[in-house]
Amino acid sequence: MTTHSAPSATALYDIPGPLTRRRHLVYGIVSTVLILALVGWVIYLLFDTDQFTSAKWSPFEYKGIQELLLRGLGNTLKAFAYAAVLSLALGAVLAVGRLSDHRPVRWIATVLVEFFRAMPVLVMIFFIFVALKVQPLPALVAGLTLYNGSVLAEVFRTGINSVERGQHEAAFALGLRKTQVTTFVLAPQAVRAMLPTIISQLVVALKDTSLGYLITYEEFLHAGKLIASNLDYDLPFIPVVMVISPIYIGMCMLLSWFATWVARRQRRNPRTEAVDVAPAGPGTLLPGAQ
Description:
Number of strands: 0
Distance between the termini: 51 Å
Order of helices and strands: HHHHHHHHHH
Radius of gyration: 27 Å
Number of helices: 10
Strand content: under 5%
Largest sheet: none
Structural class: mainly alpha
Helix content: over 70%
C-alpha cells in the first residue's frame, strides 16, 4: 500500500487545510457557473438578434471579401514585423545609452526613453502622418517603434542590471571590456528573465497595429471596417468582429507559444545547463598525493 506524504508549507504561503480547500472548491464551482452563464447569455443574444443566419455570413464566401481580409491580414503582419524588429533594435540602442558610463549619453538616452514612453502611441502616429506628411505604413511603424522601443529599453536595462553583481566583477577581473562583459556575460543571462516581458510588449505592438485604420492604412481592422460599412453586402458589424477577433487572439497566443518554446530551448541548451559533477569518493585527490 502506498502512502502519500502531506504537502509541506513554503516560505510564501501555508498549505490550506481541509476547510479552506473545500471553500476554494466552492469558489471555483461558483465562478465556473457564472462564467458559463455569461457565455450562454451572450450566445443567446447573438442567436436572438439573428447574428448566425446564413444571410449575414454568406458574404464571406465572396472572393472579393476574402481577398480584402487576406490583404489586410498581410498588411498587419508586415507592419508588425517591421515594428518588432525596429523596436528591438531601438530598445537595445537606448538601453546601451542608459547604461553608458558617459553622463551626456546617459542623459540623452534617459530623456528619449521617458519622452516616448509618456507620449500616447496614437498621438505619435498622427503627428508623423499629418505633420511630417509620411505615408501610412512608415508612419504606423515609426509610431509603434518609438513607443515600444522605449519600453523595451527599460526592459533590457532592468534585465541586465538584475544579473548578480559578481558576474560583472568576475568578467572584469578576466580583463574583459565593458562591451564584452555586456554582450557575452550579462545579456545571455538576462535574456531568460526578460523574454516573457519582451513577448508581452510585442503582443502590445501587434494589437496596436490596429491603430493604422485611423490613418487609412489598409490593415486587418481597416479591412473589417470596410466590409461592415459596405451596404451592398448588408453585412452587420458583429459577424465581422466574430471573424477578426479570433484571428487577433490566435496571433497573440502564437507569440506566447513561441516565447514558451524559446524558453524551453534555452533550458535545454548545453551552454546554460549545469554540468554534473561526480560525487567525491575515496582515492587520490591530487596528482602525486600519497
